[in-house]
Amino acid sequence: MSASESQTQGVRAESAPGPGPQKPRFHIRDLSLYYGRTQALKGVTLDVRNREITALIGPSGCGKSSFLRALNRMNDLIPDARKEGQVLLDGDDIYAVGTDVVELRRRVGMVFQRPNPFPMSVFDNVAYGPRLHGVRGRSRLEEIVEESLRDAALWDEVKEKLHKSAMELSGGQQQRLCIARVLAVGSEVLLLDEPCSALDPISTFKIEELLIELKAEYTVVIVTHNMYQASRVSDRTGFFLGGELIEFGETQQVFERPRDERTDGYVRGRFG
Amino acid sequence: MSRTGETRKSFDAQIRDLEQELLKMATFVEQMAADSLRALQEQDVALAEEVIRRDDMADQMDIDIEQRSMRLLALQQPMSKDLRTIATAMKITADLERIGDFSVDIARTAKTLAGEPYFKPLVDIPRMGELTKKMVRDALTSFVRRDLQLVRQVCADDDAVDRMWYSLRDELMEFMRKDSNLVTQATHLLLVARYLERMADHATNVAERVDYMETGTLKQLARAHTAEGLGHS
Amino acid sequence: MNLSRQAKEKVAFALLGACTLVVLTPVLLMVVLIAVRGAAAANWGFISRMPENYMRAGGIMPAIVGSLLLVGGTILLALPLGVLGAVYLTEYAGRGRMVGLVRLAIVNLAGVPSVVYGLFGLALFVLLFHFGTSLAAGCCTLALLVLPLVITASEEALRAVPDELRQGSLALGASRWQTTRRVVLPNALPGILTGAILAVGRAAGETAPILFTAAAFYVPHLPKSVFDPVMALPYHLYIIATQVPNAPPQIQWGAAWVLLALVLAVNLVAIVIRYRIRRARRW
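The joint structure predicted for all components is written out below.
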């Protein structure tokens, strides 16, 4: 096996099953996050289960996005960021000294609030990740690109214009392209930070349907300020307020009979 | 932090309106039950006919409450307590409407039996009627006050009404065996007792819905009726 | 005086238009004047022949070649250094005080008079490094001169690349350098080219820095190595305008026109390249 071939093992390998469904992928224990002197997260503890959609809701500035970014160490990019507590992925501490952050971000992919396709062709966008990780052969790249675009429910819409600029796609298509991009590097966990907030309702529903399909093979964590989206799409929901995790449980329970009165006030729209 | 504050003032008002309408219908139906029993007791045909006429109004109230509830569900995306309240309102209104129907049945029976005096003064039926009325009132109050104690009380009373039903049924069947002239009257009175027992069941349903509204979990609170035929003793 | 709003707006536009005219007029006058007077003298012979008769006749070819070599060498040195420096400042450096001081230093360097650069180049490259009066010394000095320009323009261009593109790349598992190379730099190219254009213009036209470091009064042949002195158009213009007695006017105008045309031509090429790149990479 040549060097480049062995590297591609990490990219879109036959999906390694990971732990069984419902087993935790992420264990987060007592996570606190500081930006300089401000504390953004206060002792958050929760599990993210395999092949489930976990939603994080809460008013603006409650820390849910910071929490998400702690899961793939994107917080490292912020100069003053400091953390306490543990984040374990499949049992390994992702903040341990010597962790391969590049590999972490390959396994745990992120999609952002505003679609951010690179100003390149659709093909190059999706191929960006695999090329980064050493995939060279044209036919292999084409395979990966097609598979990823199919998984992202975008293939039919772009198969005729793979070499056109990604900037020509609509907002909803661009966001699905960003999802395809992440799938192309072989991520097992998808982190989505308010992925639909810049999109119209129909595009939003399309992406929600996509997430429900993706759940069969991937673990999804979605931050959303639209709690109705959380109720439509997620298996478990966590409510954040002021940097604390107030309540976390089965989505139906959180929305039908919340245990904490703050959660109750929030889901009923009485504050926020 | 979690107050019923300024946000969703209009929604809160709409939910209060819904509860008001439900209260009105419950009071209305309770009055129908009381009047139908009085018509039976006093053999008052005019009153009976008036109760029968009121059924249309009760049906209209049922439809109105259902429409309000649907509107809130479709337009307001209610969650948690609000959602449970609206779902409860829709269920309760059906039970109230059935109580109204049974009151009409009692009123019709009153009309039918008005021609002859009763073969014996009515004692047990009014007693059963009083308990049933009390159950309807208590169920209503438990809704207004969100009082779970009252809910349990209603469920306990249902057992008592059931016992009264069984004993009345046995007594009336005994009368019919002894004197075949009494069959017509006794059968009708038997049916009235049955109507009262069914009314009590619906009042219990209301109480159980109130419990769901408060706690969020569906429970079977009243003792389930075994599939009893007429062969119980 | 109570002017209506419409009237005020017309007055404002008129004033602004007048200012623009004031700015444009000297530029246009200069170009037209030099073109008219110089084009007559600038024929092929002028451009391709060596100067004769103590530069009173003949051509200015060595000066043209010398200028082209100087500009080329300067860009070769300044562009990579400047762009990489800008990359470091934008993508890697933190926000500490040291970085702030560095930026301050760069900005101030841009204001240093060019004759000071010339003397510095003399001391460092010509004397200390023993380059002598040479193409190498001239290029190094000019490179220092235009470096602040390149760095500042490149920094602006890099900053203009939206941060979300970097985030997207990093989130896919790219390192900072991979992100810079594959996403940021390609998209900053138009802006960086702008910096290069400005640098070219500056390098081609400066006289003082090359006075002490590269320019020769007269060289009978083209430079054979980077350590040879060269003739340069700005300096040559100065010479024939002031140092050569009885130099015919059309030679002087011709030289001025060639220098102007050269700078304009290089700028035009760079602008076309930038336009092409911009069109190919829409945001």
